Amino acid sequence: MKTPQFIKTIRGLFQQKRLEWRYRFQFESPVRVSLDVNLTKASFVGRFSYIGDGGRVFGDIHIGRYCSIADGFVVISGNHPLDNLTTHPFIYNDQLFGHLKEFREIDYKKRHKTTHPEPPPKPLQIGNDVWIGNRVTILGKVRSIGNGAVVGAGSIVTKDVPPYAIVAGNPAQIIRYRFDEETVDTLQKLEWWNLPLPAIKHLNFINMSNCITELQKMRNQLSPQGTHPC
User: Fold this and answer.
1) What is the pTM of this model?
2) What are the pLDDT digits (tens) for 144-174?
3) Domains with residue ranges and CATH for the chain
């Protein structure tokens, strides 16, 4: 016997809520984040975004709406000092071997009050409608992945990614942009991701000209559906 649609809907909603009850980060429901992804309490994930298995995120991160982030996503928040005698953090970090007396009583630390080589970075901002492929690593100096950007699988991202750019490689380089400059500018202004889903689900998504025309009409009639920190 075929399961009625309303039963499937109830089951789906229950499963979604059961998953979200276990999240410790901030989010707009609904989101899907694998439970082995270690997001901080200050991190934020926008509605309809998802993150696959095996993610490792060091530091705070803000992710916009409608983002697709595949397995093996890694964000590195800091660096090691390059101009000191050693790159090892024992001269400023008691956490690694703090149980050993000789590491707690390093003269250099007492005399120079050595701290981490760089101040804590601002949260990485990942815009809306961003697609990040499998096993992508984002290094600590990156502060922004723009709206509509695409990061190819296996890439090492070392600098900010502009809106609607497609980047790939090690280090990641711009391959091309998804759309021409005028279209990118228009999409940035339209902010379709802030419109209610029922208002956009009927769009002909493969016809950009038609989509933009319809979105411009909607923008004149509808208010954005809330805002979020991204």
Assistant:
1) 0.81
2) 999 999 999 999 999 999 999 999 999 999 9
3) 15-78+118-219 (2.160.10.10), 88-117 (no CATH)
